[in-house]
Amino acid sequence: MKQYVDLHLHSIHSDGVHTPTELVEMAARLGLKAIAIADHDSVDGIDEARAAAASRGVEVISAVELSVEHKRFQDIHLLGFCIDHRDPVFRDRLGEFRHRRDDRGRAIVTRINKRLARQGRGEISYEEIQQQVTGALGRPHIAGALLAKGYAHDMQDAFVQYLIPCNVPKRYFPMAEALTEIHRIGGVAVLAHPPTITPDRMRLGGLVRELATMGLDGLEVFSNSCFDDDMIFLESLAHELGLVMTGGSDFHGFESDVCMGSGRGGLAVAYRLAAGLKERSAGRPYSMR
Fold it and tell me: Which fold, 99-163?
């Protein structure tokens, strides 16, 4: 009997709508053997998830998702798996990024309110949005406030009308620094949903080869952003470069067409990929996998 996993989930500690406990309960109902809650710039949900998983037969792999830049590429998403999520230096660094993220959220709301004023509509309140957020405030939380006011039909409409035109650039980890930090805390560095970086496979292949020389450990081969031919390309690249492969739904809970474990319906990530992550991390300093 095959055993499946979902190695890319988000909780209320970043831009998801479910608590870590709820995610574990959902995974147990779906029969998933392992999950990774990879919140943006936050590891605050991992201990709660592991406590909830203890009696439910679900393995929780520690993870985080960092926003990274490298040369002309911005907003590359880098997953760190099997990390020491309690490392105080790393947690302090994430705290700095979350603080900057909150500042960015406030600036975006200010821009949106100016746009709403031009439309003759009432403002949304940053403070009220913040009260509903457990972790770092993200753009989906702001979109939720717009939906609650009836200013958008759905999440996509909120982004198209307000979040994209009123965006404020965010701060990124330099790639070399992010790779070094993930390795320092015993982690495995994996490039998330690679086709979102560039649809040009020549450029993407060149980027991945360069990052592999810098210490990149793996590729998220199986994701919602990949068609079958993308997965074949990424799997071939991973084999060529000796990179581990992972996969996940990138589930946040607000998407109408994305489900945990199965993504948009065709995702099936075997447990052997989680085992491969643990094997890659085994020789690194942190031993509590």
Answer: DNA polymerase; domain 1 (1.10.150)
